[in-house]
Amino acid sequence: MSRFVLFGRSPAGESPTRPLYDTPDWIQAQPARIERALERALAQPSGGWAVLDASSRVGAPRAMEVAGRALVVWRAPDGPRAAPEACPHMGASLCDGHVDDDGRVVCPWHGLALGDRPRGDWAPLPTHDDGVLTWVRLPELLAPGEAPTDAPILCERPAAFLHGVIRQEARCAPRDILANRLDPWHGVHFHPHSFLRLAVVDEGPDHITVRVVYKVLGPLAMEVDARFHCPDPRTIAMTIVAGDGLGSVVETHATPLGPGRTAVIEATLATSDRLGFPWVQRAQRLLRPLIEQRAARLWVEDCAYAERTYALREAGRLPVLRGAEAPQPPPSPAMKPRGGIE
Ligand code: FES
Ligand SMILES: [Fe+2]
Prior knowledge:
The strands form four sheets. Strands 1, 11, 12, 13, 14, 15, 16 and 17 form an eight-stranded mixed sheet that branches. Strands 2-10-9 form a three-stranded antiparallel sheet, with no helix packed on it. It has two domains: 5-45 and 156-314, START domain (Alpha-D-Glucose-1,6-Bisphosphate, Chain A, domain 4); 54-141, Rieske Iron-sulfur Protein (3-layer Sandwich). It contains six helices and 17 strands. It is globular and about 70 Å long. α3 packs across α6. Residues 329-342 have low confidence and may be disordered. It is α+β, with helices and mostly antiparallel strands. The site of fe (ii) ion has 7 residues, from α4 and α6.
């Protein structure tokens, strides 16, 4: 195997952190352990919110589907709007309409202008623009007995960042997207083009922290500590908690489209306390495609993973080892010293 060279700050600091476990990844990746974390995530409130797409992609009227509802989404001068896609007059698709100077969508058939006031059964839905992503609130997204909230539950983001957002659709349920990310142990095996080494260094009921070495360019690789947690039942966030890029966040949102169909919307918000970062931010337009290409490549593979899990579960064919608890592995010796990886 070729040799890679680590650069950047060590996440370990002066006293190296030991990985919690020293057993093969397939033993650490216990299905019951992943499902426990998943059930805790799914039990959290969402306030009825789900992500539609990057805010920069909300403009002219556009057809979108959320929780089986056909929506039209557009941008008005005061922010994003979302509403039923069919015109309340005779059912024309408002996605074929245009936006007037007052930010109302104008029906292409007879010119009815629809804005923030209900018309018959037609009523606009609450939306939220968090500066990177646009969200919609639907009653169908609330758990039984759950109250809607004025705004979505957002995870902590860096103050200054450059970002990219990807959106992909997968034939699975939102839970399969979260479950994929709650299994960090597949990273090195399933994405060998991106990850070189991964070890769990901290774990609690609602988070898991991994020390991961990822490829940056050519033989150069970086090592960081990344913490995964779920701020709501359709989001898993990865935050860099040690090493270069401290505070950077990758938010993965799983929005239900309809039965067995989910949109994955992933926002990468990269930050750095290095002196040159403001200059890097100015190159955002050049760097954003690179951020998005990298995320999209991983999600092509991870959607395949999630789709397979979904298909097996739907067919009642999940493997027999599922649910079998492997014994809790003992603590291992300290991690290898830095300087290169065979
Ligand atoms: S169908 Fe929309 S105005 Fe008539
Ligand atoms: Fe993955």
